[in-house]
Amino acid sequence: MVIIISTTKFPLSKGKEVAERYIEVSKKYPLDKSLEKQILPLAVRIRGNDAESISISEVKEGKLEEVLKRATEQQLLYMDIEGIKFKVDTFFSGVEALPMIGFKMPE
Q1: Which residues are within 8 A (CB) of 35 and not within 5 positions of it... i.e. 6 or more apart?
Q2: How far does Cα 75 stand from its chain's mean position?
Q3: Does domain 2-101 have CATH number 3.30.450.20?
Q4: Which mean pLDDT values do the consecutive 10-residue runs of the chain (107 residues) have?
Q5: Is 23 exposed, middle or buried (0-12, 13-18, 19+ CB in 10 A)?
Q6: pTM score of the predicted model
């Protein structure tokens, strides 16, 4: 199983613009259940003068490349908003990760 954590940071002063764009992007790119399962659609916190949001999803088998391409397409729709930053982190389950270094998960 592959888990994707997408993080977006932006100035609080751009919050309304980001929220409006989020709604537009969500309509243009509705959840595709054939690609991923949402674990956490959206969570937001305030840190100083910035807002930070995350979403977490589980990628369906063999769909990682497609999910990452789709995430990039979505991010590009925000790029005219000054100060916005994105990060996409990919995590592998222990069952998948341990064989990469010659081990397997204990029973």
Answers
A1: 59, 60, 63, 66, 67, 70
A2: 10
A3: no
A4: 96 97 96 96 96 97 96 96 96 83 80
A5: exposed
A6: 0.86
